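Subject: for your reference before the review

Hello V.,

The reviewers asked for a structural picture of the protein, and I figured it would be easier to keep everything in one thread rather than splitting it across files. Below is the amino acid sequence we used in the manuscript, unchanged from the supplementary table.
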Amino acid sequence: MNQAVGSDAKAVPVNVDGLYEKHKTVYARSVTGKFNNWRWAMVVVTQTLFYGLCWLSWDGRQAVLFHITERKFYIFGMVFWPQDVIYLAILLVISAYTLFLVTAVGGRLFCGYACPQTVYTEILMWIERKIEGERPARMKLDAQPMSPRKFRLKLLKHFLWLLVALWTGITFVGYFTPIKELLGEIASLELGPWEAFWVLFYAAFLYMMAGFLREQVCKYMCPYARFQGVMFDPDTLIISYDPERGEPRGARRKTAAGQAKPLGDCVDCRICVQVCPTGIDIRRGLQLECIACAACIDACDQVMDKVGSPRGLIRYSTENALAKHYTAREVVSHLLRTRTLLYASILLGIILATVWSLSQRIPLKVDVLRDRSTLSREADDGRIENVYRLHISNTDGVPHRYSIGVSGIDGIDIVGERLVEIPAASSTTVALSARVQPESGKKGSNQIFFEIRAITDDKLAIREKTSFFLP
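And here is what came back from the structure prediction:
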């Protein structure tokens, strides 16, 4: 399509079609090797945690549950309430600095081994290979017109993809609605509208992203691919092709005179391109489409074994290591540099502070609310009375009985409930009043403290400040 530029009809036309590259389906070839084993190990670890953690019980409840309805987050023995949102912020900061550190050291290792897009694409591609065959067979099948065999294979593949996607969607929602309740609602066809929406949405999202879009998510949709270069430097480990050793590339052939043509180690077999899940040629250098999965390293090492050349033509290396011919020990030594040490120090400091904060966290929360409709009033016994409402939350995993006391003004006393029993991970509101003699404090606002303490554990106590008004 040609389009004229500007309002002048005689303007030079621009070929708009040349601005866009037509999408080409990537038929990734399977590969075996050390890094492929590591990728599948990460698939097993991450999915065992994801699919299995929601079934783990703790103190009679789901061990990990972000209960939106109850507004409580259960993580093993800890219960977090909306007031604990600071820990969510800290978790995001830790995740960000961990990503910065990993990227500065080893490039896009997260993308290649732990990113959900990569993990689920690997799972769905494994199903595809089992049903449709290896790369040549899949290419041949897609090129054929529709036939009963092709329809049967495609139907089976998509059916299994949908099963994986649907179970993943159910598991995802099972972290927000107790998984056993969720399955009971599904079995009885009583699933709520929001649960149904998120199960189907997440399933459709996974089915589309990992089944169809695949490398397009990494190339065009993921923001990480766009700003990763900011965290790279010449000492960052990346998937690297060694041009000094590999060039000039070419197949091993003899000249007519029987003299071997001087070629590099690269035999130009293009297997490194065929195994790449994003379809790039790593021999062109670092590209934003590279997700550091190292499939090309496994493939190239096998080719080098066959042609009798040393492994490592494609390897994890750094820009400086290739230019200055670092040894393996020198490469490792350059990983400990100012940037990585700074990231590691900040990350370690945040983690230690968070662990200390959690260890010192008291599983008891108290909010004191004064009755503002009446600042103060004179009681029947002549004392001045202020009315309060105490919202007490037991964030522990076991029930507790608490005593309520008050201090801050001489002779101050509580009229109302002094003992309250609260079940595990529950809260209650206690209405009470405090009374003092009129001459016990100054006119106006006086500072007092409500003291809530567990009967069986003196360490489980909170002293909450509020005010007492004297006319």
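For the response letter, the relevant points are probably these. The longest strand covers residues 384-394. DSSP finds 16 helices and 18 strands in the chain.

Happy to draft the paragraph if you're swamped.

O.
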